[in-house]
UniProtKB/TrEMBL annotation:
All copies of domain AIG1-type G, residue ranges: 12-215
InterPro entries listed in its UniProt record: G_AIG1, GIMA/IAN/Toc, P-loop_NTPase
Alphabetically ordered keywords of this record: GTP-binding, Nucleotide-binding
Record Pfam families: AIG1 (PF04548)
Protein name, as recorded: AIG1-type G domain-containing protein
Family statement: Belongs to the TRAFAC class TrmE-Era-EngA-EngB-Septin-like GTPase superfamily. AIG1/Toc34/Toc159-like paraseptin GTPase family. IAN subfamily.
Highest taxon, organism lineage: Eukaryota
Family annotation (PROSITE patterns): G_AIG1
Length: 249
């Protein structure tokens, strides 16, 4: 409203949000907290819940939201360690909400120590996007209950790697406690921060190349076919070995 009164940008009534980050960072739970419903599956234990980028929609605080969840990379994996399908899915996440996301939430759990390996993993996986993605990125801390009496600012100051990430994001960050989804204030404040970031950017969103999207989709389909072929081949080998071994008994 203030922006409208001052005659500047009018806030969009439809926000497009993409969540990225490491495995078990709480991206799916964060999507559920933001949308206020069980939109993304979080039931699996000790397994990655998200293997493909997923999209869900909702209306929150009078705004239409499109929220995309993406597969996470393993804790301290380099980009080279991450398999091709995961890299394709992470890249693809920003293409699921054309013409591009207003906000990319880099999801980081507060309980994790940001050492050199973790920081390197973040830097390398963010390189899957263009450098200007950082202008549209906000650090979203999960496990807000873990802070206790400590402030998030104190936590950031205590981690040199975290300082680098937050600075790279223009000092934009927010804390969510996904264990308390009844606290609607934390989501309202997050959406306000996203709108502030949007208002301060010359480009209103991270623009995607739709031709590139078609190329990525074709590559994904080729990878999927290859994985299915390998699975069938391994199943045939397994059946053959069982028959051979069974015949020797």
């Amino acid at each position: 409203m203030k922006l409208q009164i001052e005659g500047r940008k009018i806030s969009p009534n439809h926000l497009r949000i993409v969540m990225i980050g490491g495995s078990h960072a709480g991206k799916s739970s964060t999507g559920n907290t933001i949308l206020g419903k069980s939109a993304f599956n979080v039931n699996k234990i000790n397994e990655r819940t998200t293997t493909h980028s997923e999209i869900n929609h909702g209306v929150v605080e009078g705004r239409r939201l499109t929220v995309i969840d993406s597969p996470g990379w393993y804790y301290i994996h380099t980009l080279q360690d991450t398999n091709e399908m995961d890299k394709l899915e992470i890249r693809n996440s920003v293409y699921l909400c054309p013409p591009g996301p207003h906000a990319v939430l880099l999801v980081i759990p507060l309980a994790i120590s940001i050492d050199a390996s973790y920081l390197n993993g973040v830097q390398q996986h963010m390189s899957l996007f263009r450098e200007d993605v950082w202008k549209h990125t906000l650090v979203l801390f999960t496990r807000g209950d873990w802070l206790g009496v400590k402030t998030v600012e104190e936590h950031i100051e205590s981690e040199e790697g975290l300082q680098w990430i937050v600075n790279k994001c223009g000092n934009r960050y927010h804390v969510l406690n996904n264990m308390d989804q009844s606290d609607k204030t934390q989501v309202k404040e997050l959406l306000e921060k996203i709108e502030e970031m949007w208002a301060g950017n010359e480009d209103p969103y991270y623009e995607v190349d739709l031709d590139r999207a078609a190329h990525i989709e074709a590559k994904k389909e080729a990878e999927d076919k290859m994985v299915k072929r390998l699975k069938k081949t391994n199943e045939r080998k397994s059946r053959f070995l069982k028959e051979v071994l069974g015949g020797k008994q």
